[in-house]
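SEQUENCE WITH STRUCTURE:
===
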Amino acid sequence: MTDDGISSRQIAKELRNVVRQRFTYKRRRSARQLAKSLRVSEATMRRVIQDDLHLHASHVTIQPNIQDDHKQRRKSFAYWVRKSLRKKDHGLILFIDEKYFGMDEGLTTPIIFKPGETLTHKNYIDIVLPRALAEGQRLLGEVFIYQQDNAIPHTHKDSLT
C-alpha cells in the first residue's frame, strides 16, 4: 500500500490503461518520452509496453546505398539481357526470393523452415536448389534460367561451385 491507500496492483493497472490510451491516441511515440512524462523508469515503461500491452518497436529498414557505379552496372546488365536473350527466353527465367509467399494456390510450393531456423548456404544447397530445379523443370521445361537475388546464402563460395 502506498501513502494514499492505493495498492501497487491498482497503480500498475492504471499505468497500463494510461499507456494504452496514449498509444491509441498517437501510435508513434518514444517510450523514453512517455516514461519521463508519467514519471516512471524506462525499465518499467518497457515492461508495460512489451509484456503487458504486447507492443513492439518497428525498426526502419535501411535501404542499400546505391552508387552511380551500381546504377550504371545495372543498366549495362539490362542492355545485355535485351541484346543477348531472345524474347522467348524471357519467359524461361525462374526468380527466387525467400521473403514472402502466398498460401492461395501459388505456382510454386513454399519451403518452410522450422521456427528459429534460418537459410544458410548448406540449407540452400541441400533443400532450396533441388526444389528450385524440380519446380523450374515442372513450370518451364528442361531448359530455363535460374535467377537468384544475391542473398548471402546464394553467393557463398560453396553455393557457387
In short: Residues 8 and 55 are 22 Å apart (CA to CA). The chain has a mean pLDDT of 77.
